[in-house]
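Fold this sequence, please.
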Amino acid sequence: MLPRFNQGEKYKLQMKGGNMFNSNHSPLNFWLVLLVMGSLAVGLVLGRTSTNRPLMDPVPLTHAGQNALNEQTRHQQAMNQVDEAAYAERVERQLEAERQIAALEQQRRQREFEREQQLQDAQVQEDIRHYQEMNRLQEERYAKITDLLSLTARLLLAVCAVAVIAWALSLVRRVSQTKPKEVYRERQLLKEMARLREQNQRLLHLLQQQGLEELREQRRQVPVVPQDGNLPVTIPIKDDTDRLAI
């Protein structure tokens, strides 16, 4: 028998936090759980018994029943074939879908590879353009330096040319500022100096010749000392060859 609770106990159970139907410590819940478990156990036992052993002996089938059974079997086989065909079709569709997915994945990988290759090619082209730009800037810098050096050399040559021209102009101005009389006097003095120089050369030449003649005359008379102790005798000598012969 199920236990009965009066109003006071029910109020106490509600005051504790729930009624007697929702409380975990209620005896009613215990009996309900026990009843459900027993029903399940009985059902399992009866189901196993009916499955293992038939309730009555099989009745032999008639011709109509056999035809019906055969028709049902054929229908079941046809259904099975349809199910197999549907399953095969479903498997084929799944395989086709997997092949399409694999093809799409391969295309995606190919596109990613081509994109990476294009990015690498673009980076290489960018590096080549950068190097070319650097070389161009370096060549322009060298060209500017060369132009600056050539311009400096030209300026130096121009300065030297200007200096030479200025010196020539000053010399021309100095010559042009000289008076004609002074120029004539200088020319006369130069001529007189040339004449005196030529005269001096002539005199010097004459003196040299006269000195040579006197020296030659002195050399023509060479004292000869005799062997017997007498006084020396002067022998006239015509030229140096006779003296040398003696």
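Residues 1-25, 51-57, 231-246 have pLDDT under 50 and may be disordered. Residues 71-178 form one domain.
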